[in-house]
Amino acid sequence: MMKMVLSYSLGEMKYTKGKEKYIQTGPAREVRYQSGDKMLFPRIWDSSNDQNHAQFYADWLGIGQQQDPNTGQTKYEAPSYGQNINWFLTYQTDFLFMRYFMWNFAGRQNDLQGFGNKRDGNWISGISLMDNARLGDQSKMPDSLKVNKANNKLFMLPLILGVLGFVFQLLRNKNDFIVTAILFFFLGEAIVLYLNAPGNMPRERDYVFVGAMYVFAIWIGISVLAFVKLALEKTDKELFKKVLIYGATLTFLVTIISSLTGSASGAIMASLVAAILFVAVVAAVTYIVKAASGKGSNLKMAGITAGAICLLVPVLMAQQEWDDHDRSQKTLAPDLAKDYLESCAPNAILFTFGDNDTYPLWYAQEVEGIRTDIRIINTSLLGIDWYINQLRYKINKADGVDVIWSPEQIEGHNREYIRLGQQQQGQAIDANAFYPLYDIMKDYLGQEVKDEDGNDVGPNTMPFKKFFVPVDKQLVYKNGTATPADSVVDQMAFEIPSGAIARNDLIMLNIIATNKWQRPIYFTAAYGELGFGQHLRKDGLAYRLVPFQAKAPQQNWVTDQAMRAMRAGGSSVKDNNLKAIFENLQKFEFGGANKKGVYFDEVNRQYLLNIRGIFAEAAGNLADAGKTDEAVKLLNREAAGISPENLPYGMTSRYSQHNQTGILLTEAYYKAGKLDQARKVAEDIKKDIASQRSYYEYLKAEKPEFYAGLEHTEVILNEIMNEVLGQVEQQYDPLKKAAKNPAQEITPEALLKAADSAKKATAADSAK
């Protein structure tokens, strides 16, 4: 999929602001491609494939691919012009824009992020004849998705009113229509054209098109006037005919454009029903308004009647959608920030990744004054010189940090990108040796290299990839970084796996090197990209850098093999910090999950599942260590903080993430001796597994084209969850042990194979 670069054309010189003057950063470069690689309106692109977009393109469009036997890398056929247009229509226009549009004005299936299958995140209308033709029988859906609060049935009524307003304004006031239509276009489809969105979105992006939704609401408002005018027009029957014909045609087109990812027959059926529904609704309401106004003689009564009837539509929208839009009792964002901060020891450094981690943490410190002794460092900004310079100074109660390099050494594009493992002529570097991180950063990358204008530009290559950080054992025992039970190493050695790193990672390494274990260092995620992931210990929501290899209690958990297979390494609580994590979890908050009826969408649920999993893992490990009372305390605190009504124990989710955590909680209850509660959780999970199985069997038997998008991921994972849960019960439940059948046990190899199958299928789930 990568274009062949012919050369670069150089443009004007670019500058960045320095301390005393502007600094040249090099001329602008524009790639020049071979003429044979060019096409009109290219849509498929990815300069690096670091987010696996190429595989998503291939799955969605059926692009040919083969694995190189020598390198193991996947090679893809060049996409055709037709496939580019296909991508624009089916994914960018239909799946990204029109699917979101129909969520608002036709109805929504559920709040699971959609990737193309017929189970997750599609638009529905609530009219079986339409929905079943496009997506399969919706009554067969898993029970937890049928009662999902984002299952909103609007019966196409908002869409019909908006189309009526659109057509009426077009026919009666073209000047106003042009203005409104242009605004709708530029806030909707023009964004699709301009952004040229790749696949594999990290989350649903419906908020991007909110402007277009507002404009469409203008046409919904105009529909009231349209009904009044249609009812009062005694002689102009031509207007009524045009409204019905144009409106039905437009409704048909909107529906079919919103159904391009399904079968042709299903799209046509749904579109025909939608067109007929438009005619029926508009004709019926017009007749009612005309009758109520004395056959068009009473303007006031016509307006009241039309307004009252049309008002029923936003009332329906509120009735269907209020429960999944109400955030009045939800405090998850600030509570998560508190949980992150309370996972850290005093005077810590906390590295965060991206906006969603960082903004709540800033709010917690700056507004609520929570744990202002912790220095928050946003790695997304860590490549910018002005942000790096801010780290040098104390903020609130958090001391500054030493970044080794001077402001002059990092200004502009200096030391912005370093290639690793490249030896220069005359260098003799032992590729197997580990080198002191602090010395390399200070003396090698910190050496002065001048350009022709006398500016310090620094090295842009480095022959080293393996480093170590010396460990002062007396210090780490004294400040609580380690305990005598830990196998502390003399040097924390690691190897950077990539061939180059950017300045944000370089500054992170500088901080680790110069800290010398004096302050606790934490990460909001298990950051393994720089090679020291094995030295991260989970102390709650945050991962602490420790001078020993953190170990997981693999031998004590039946679910551990499954969890590690599904999570590519897992997030098991380590067996050497039970006291610290027990104390940290006493301070956790749950975002309002204990309040009746609070709605948490899929992303919210993932955060809550993470918290539930942390409590379960900690409780299970405490029970294994003989600390049953502490284990029960944690389980009781989780049960009081997260209501099963708001976060069920068993629930259909992408890649069975929800049920994975439920099984972990089941085993924790068993370990702690709470058999009744363990059985209750297990029963809820079993119900969901059975409900999913029934749905998949229906698709396989009656809708095989829809089953294909789920069979290699969700179907397999659902059966694995069933087997793993059975093993947990057989291991711990006295009522189940007698029925244990070793032949049914799942091997780690089978788990890993299934997990690998799910990953290779990608989140696309295929739109075939």
In words, what does this structure look like?
This protein has 4 domains: 5-80, no CATH class; 156-322, no CATH class; 334-550, no CATH class; 553-768, no CATH class. A hairpin with a 6-residue loop joins strand 3 (65-67) and strand 4. The strands form 6 sheets. The chain has a 5-stranded mixed beta sheet with strand order 8-7-15-17-16, covered by helices on one side. The chain has a 3-stranded mixed beta sheet with strand order 11-9-14. The chain has a 3-stranded mixed beta sheet with strand order 10-12-13. The protein has 28 helices and 17 strands. It is 49% helix and 10% strand. The longest helix has 29 residues, at 264-292. It is α/β, with parallel strands linked by helices. The model is unreliable at 565-575 and 759-768 (pLDDT under 50). It is globular.
Strand percentage lies at: 5-15%
Q: How big is the Rg?
A: 30 Å
Note poorly predicted spans: 565-575, 759-768
Strand order of the largest sheet: 8-7-15-17-16
Summarize the structure in short:
The chain has four domains: 5-80, no CATH class; 156-322, no CATH class; 334-550, no CATH class; 553-768, no CATH class.
